[in-house]
Amino acid sequence: MNLICTVKVGSISGEEIESDLKLLVTIIALSVGLAHTEPQDELYSFEWIGYNTNLDDPKYRLLDNVQPLQISVDLDVYLEESRFNGIVQLQVEVRENLTQIVLHQNVVSIDEVSVLDATERPVSLQIPNPFTIDRYYEIVTINFASEIVPGTYIITVNYKGRIHENPHDRGLYKGHYYYNNEKRYYATTQFQPYHARKAFPCFDEPQFKCPFTITITRGANLRPSFSNMAIANTNVLPSGRVQERFYPTPVVSSYLVAFHVSDFVSTNSSGTVQKPFQIISREGPTNQHSYAADVGFKITEIMESYFNISYYEMGQGRAMKNDHIALPDFPSGAMENWGMVNYREANLLFDQQNTNLPDRINMAAIIAHELAHKWFGNLVTCFWWSNLWLNESFASFFQYFSAHEAEPWLELDDRFILDRVQSALSGDASSSIQPMNWSSVADNPSITAHFGTSSYAKGASVLRMLEHFVTPVVFRNALRYYLKDNAYGIGYPTDMYAAFRRAVSEDPTFATAYPGIDIGTVFDGWVQNAGAPVVEVNVNMTSGLVSLTQRRFQISGTPPNDIWQIPISWTHGDSPNFQSTRPTYVLTQRTGSVQKPTGTSWVVLNIAQSGFYRVNYDNQNWGLIAAQLRSNKDVIHKLSRSQIVNDVLFFIRAGQISIPVAFDVLSFLAKETDYYVWNGALTQLEWIHRRLKHLPAAYDEFTAYLLELVDEAVKQIGYADGANDSASTIQQRMQILNFACNLGHQGCIDDSLAKWNSFRTQNTPVQISSRRYVYCIGLRNGNASDYEFLFQKYNTSENTADMVVMLRSLPCSKNQASVEHFLYQTMHSDKIRVHDRNNAFSYALQGNSENLQTVLNFAFKNFAEIRETYGGPVRLSNSLSALSGFLTDFEDIVKFQSWLYENQIAVGESFSTGVSVVNTAVNNLRWGNNVAAEIFSELRSRSSATAVTTSLFVVMLALAAKFVF
User: Fold this and answer.
1) Would you say 195 is a known binding-site residue?
2) If we measure between CA atoms, which residue out of 377, 561, 381, 568 comes closest to residue 469?
3) Which of 70, 539, 926, 945 is 20 to 30 Å from the Cα of 27, by its Cα?
4) pLDDT at position 958, please?
5) Are residues 76 and 218 in the same domain?
């Protein structure tokens, strides 16, 4: 091809601006509040007047008047040198007269740009400045000498790129592993949401879809590379380097393009010739491939049947691959690239002798999540990241229910309530939570922020509610319509609503059951409203009228006056029915009502927590529920019991239930042994417990209360797994014993120490499910030699999931020299993965609260190095944010705040995180102060075995001594 009008430029280097500004802060009063200023970003200024362009406003976005038709990416990869040379050729359709074409880019340098028209004639570029680069907005603008007309054009860009050595930088990045004590490297991609531009200039938004052809040139010492599609041909170049060209992808967005260069090996134990299913990993753990291969292939076939669209036929004329790669270093949990899914090793490699049940559950769920994306996200893609829920909500939904069908023993259908519904309701309790459809998504920071609870857990929870509402068959039909009608294209919320309306219209029972209800309007309300509602229930026992009022639930602040159309399922004590979860009423206004039989009997809404809302009852109804739970808890479904305790504990936090009523309801936990119920309670009980830490009398009383609550569960569950235990029984044992040991339950501690000592002295392996708390108790009650023993085990392990269990346990030690060693290792040991370093502070503080001073001093001395070795400013911010829940003394808050302000310039963008840490810690103390006396009084009044020997005056005196403002 004859290329002219070409300009060469060198790499653009940045300049460091040093400042000797010093901020002197002498006195900071917490009661006044904290203020800070953020430096303004320096914006590049460009004159666009008189230009016709495809650049949108704001300049992060592109207009749709230029569309990619096909893109070829040719990379010459030098793995050892962490660099590559690239050529990208983009065939585009220009839809209107233009003087500029803008592409996204974030490469090292662009050396040449040329443009041909449809007849392959060169198109003249402007001289000077044929193209300009904007580093802030990450774009390159191609400037034409004169206006071009609509038609097809071919843009060729020669450039240089870097292989990032920090995986958190994403794009094409470099990782490492050891094999036979030899350090080896690999390079792989992570492009979502806007990092493809780091590997090649492109249209880096989900709405721009086209086929990609990838060519990789690599060293001959490496094994064949991987990409979305199979290798079409391989050539050995005169230099001895190997060039591999892959088949073109189907129509796909740039963020789903992927490639991988390494000496990794693959296995194909579960697929067939027509339906290959490969697990790929570093050399060494190939014997850990079989579980993912088996469950992943089953899930693929389950989804093919459910959606009535074959995965392997999605290649638009070429068979799709189904590769799954385990990566030692990966910034995300997994990534759904079409044909080549990337995972952290711990999420894909299963070792029968070392992988515990939660990790096994996590593997099945994550594999199902990424496979569901092949339909939701890859085949049909959200238009823009504001509608990310169209991708992630469905993947989050099917990760439970498809995996459950593949492996029912794991109980993923019921587990959905804990992991998604209650998690989403927790996030939605914040006044600052964003809606599922967040129209404010405009720039890179807001894009990243939307990858959170609303798009994943909340969206999935809303889908589950709708499935119960319209029935599973209608729900499935709606999804089939959506996928078929929008295949290989872009999906909008209105497309989803239209598919649901069509499916519902074919079901005559819906109109009969819910006259006047439009399913699209119901759906859209949950998508557009931030937060989630609480339904307040008032039961007139004389008339049987059950009055309902809805409002948004928030922990604090005044909620907006949003209204949802809430499908209501309910039952009552006269005729309990927890099997039928299809709603019988839709609450469309602020208030409404249903009718129960007259007489004194309880009412329970939201059967098996099938809807996405909280429920708060009047005091009489709460009392009747509490009595039922104490007398025969099993009358009420375990998932409803889980919701009840979770709701009550959140109502305590929000001050929306009286303390006596709340503890009356919670009293049944003393006889409760079910995993789902306790899981709904534990996190919130721990939250309250920690907020009383600065008030010793109240804290000790609450500790005694918790020990009394868990004692029966400990007795029932025992200390060892049985051969016939269910998955939930095993997990109940894990969570209850971990909780009990941390509270100081003597039986738990004694059993754990016995197992630890046997492990140390006789090398008797600790049962997999017991390792987390046994290792922690062993180190907490041991010395430096116990720490060194486990650290050596960590460094020689070949199973990443088990390594994480050990890593969490190492800072349980009370030997502060050992804790310091752990913290320094997180900066310097390349055995500790970059994605695990971010959790170092959390592990150290969760393992032993006595580590706080060591962690603070480590942060104060090493924050600059932490920022660098953990992977950047965001990682330092994440580490500091872990402190907020453990700054339980006023003096420690002042100490942290003083350091923060003395180093305001040096900590950079982490300063605002530090301010939030201080504010959160202060609010935690205030919350504890406000409820301590009432909780103390209530617990003492409920204790028949303990006389009231500590007056409330003593509690208040302690409060005044610890926190004055």
Assistant:
1) no
2) 568
3) 926
4) 55
5) yes
Identify the domain containing residue 72 by its residue range.
Answer: 68-263
On the 0-12 / 13-18 / 19+ scale of CB atoms within 10 A, 553 is buried
Contacts of 425 (CB under 8 A, 6+ apart): 461, 532, 553, 612, 614, 646, 650
Answer with the one of 244, 263, 282 that is the final residue of a domain.
Answer: 263
For residues 936-949, average pLDDT: 71
Residue 539 has pLDDT above 80, yes or no: yes
How far is it, in rounded angstroms, from Cα 823 to Cα 844?
A: 8
| pLDDT average, residue stretch 527-553 | 98
pLDDT band at 31 (very low <50, low <70, confident <90, very high): very low
369 among the known binding-site residues?
Answer: yes
The three-state secondary structure class of 178 is strand
Beta bridge partners of 572: 603
* Final residue before a domain boundary, out of 497, 528, 559: 528
Residues 490 and 547 both lie in one domain: no
- 135 and 214 share a domain? yes
Residue 316 covered by a domain: no
CATH number at residue 540: 2.60.40.1910
Question: 370 an active-site residue?
Answer: yes
Cβ atoms of 380 and 697 closer than 8 Å: no
Specify the CATH number for the domain of residue 256: 2.60.40.1730
pLDDT, mean of residues 582-607: 98
Q: Are residues 476 and 592 in the same domain?
A: no
Q: Which of 138, 205, 345, 370 is catalytic?
A: 370
Task: Give all strands (DSSP E) within 352-451, no chain letters.
Answer: 380-382
On whether residue 704 sits in a domain, the answer given is no
Using CA atoms, how far residue 542 sits from 593, 595, 620, 842, 902, in Å, is 15, 11, 13, 53, 65
Residues 6 or more apart whose CB falls under 8 angstroms from that of 729 comprise 675, 717, 722
Residue 392 marked as a ligand binder: yes
Alpha carbons 300 and 297: distance in angstroms, whole number: 5
